[in-house]
Amino acid sequence: MAAPPGHRASPPALPVDLVEEILLRLPPDEPALLLRASLVCKAWGCAVSHPSFRRRLPELHGIAPVLGFLHDWSEERIPNFVPTTASAFSLAAPDRRFWRALDCRHGRAFFVSEPKSCETRELLMWEPVTGAQQRVPVPAAFGNMDADMLMYPSAAVFCAAAAGCDHHGCHGGPFGVAFVFTVDPHNDDYEEYVTSGCVYSSETGKWGELTPMHCEIGMDVGDFSCVLVGRSLVYFMSNGRAILEYNFESNELAVIDTPDYEYAGIFSLMLAEDGGLGVIQDLDSHLKLWSREASDNTDEQWVLSRVIDLGNLLPVDALVNATSSLFVLGFAEGADVIFVDTVVGLFTIELLSQRVRKVCGKNGFCQLIPIVGFYTPLSRNKHQDQLPSNASEEERGEEERGEEEKTVDQAQQLLDSGFKAITEGTSSTPSNVPAMFSDLYDRVYSHGCGFAVRSSRDD
User: Fold this and answer.
1) Using CA atoms, how far apart are residues 72 and 69, in angstroms rounded to an integer?
2) CA–CA separation, 181 and 2 (whole Å)
3) Of 335, 358, 318, 341, which Cα lies nearest the Cα of 86?
4) Do 260 and 248 form a contact (C-beta atoms < 8 A)?
5) For residue 254, which of 290, 212, 203, 282 has the smallest C-alpha distance?
6) What confidence tier does 36 reach under pLDDT thresholds 50, 70, 90?
7) End-to-end CA distance of the chain
8) CA 140 to chain centre
């Protein structure tokens, strides 16, 4: 029977495996699209929340996107989590009135309770994608110390799974925390500062041995981000233009001077191209990128690897008062992206491509904690583990592999033709989109899921 006038006949349903291949190819920097797709039906929700889907995202897209950032600005109108994605997106981050963000890595963010919010200091681990939280007691040496003698602490959270984990799907697994703090003996001018570090293991639920270090300067690391090099070296920037190195495998602390020490400039930590320690020197409208390298028979030294002229990247109005109003605030590990605060707002710069995006119209942030990762919605089905996972190639016959390759090719062709029509069309569903893809397009991009999510197509 023909469809009634004015009504479009429903297109043939897409096979679930083909839908999965198409959804895998949605832009990872638009996580709201996957969230919307997960609400279409139970099958789609199970597909995008299954561990095999999470594993395949990095295989297909490579570098994980920056989803947004945490911050410590007291402005109540700014949400605890600020998205930087192409489409509107939100995560229910811990309330910054009670929790100060310290670090985020390997799918986990870490916080310390604000002194004014509770009598007993606590730490908190939060998984941005799953929303899972776990409270962690502070080290006894820190908790028993007079608060007036403590400088702001810092911490680095990391995955504690066995070597070989790619950290894209280790949510709920074991984690560790490298925690550092400094005691300020301000009542005695002749006593040295004491900086200490210790490591927490979620597997044992205990803190390890305390490693103290006496030094002449106070390592106030609470307002700066840190970086993890390898599996056991953490570096913290201090306000004294010195870098604290914590080797928690050998229980050793050391202090490293920043490069170009005699010149002005603000330094931020980053990872160099080889994965080693690097720093960004902020000099007005120029950035100097340094890496720490060792040559034959010499200790590691700072080597200038690159100079970035922000005048060629940022808009003219962003460079006004660059000396006092332009700062590098954060480095996103795993994405090689830096955040630059200016008088007209906050920008991200991809160090490899030098692509620049304005991600926030506000300025004046003091500390940013970027959140990097592939977002996948949680399953509405508690029994999602019953969904069969993809078998390995060795377990499939040639015929089955051929069918999968055919499905992948078909999904890519549908996606390419569909999105080509979308970009050449208008905000409504273009008439030249293939009928089956048009139905999926309607479900993901329009209001078919019961709520609207702004897409970059609407900008």
Assistant:
1) 10
2) 74
3) 358
4) no
5) 212
6) confident
7) 41
8) 30
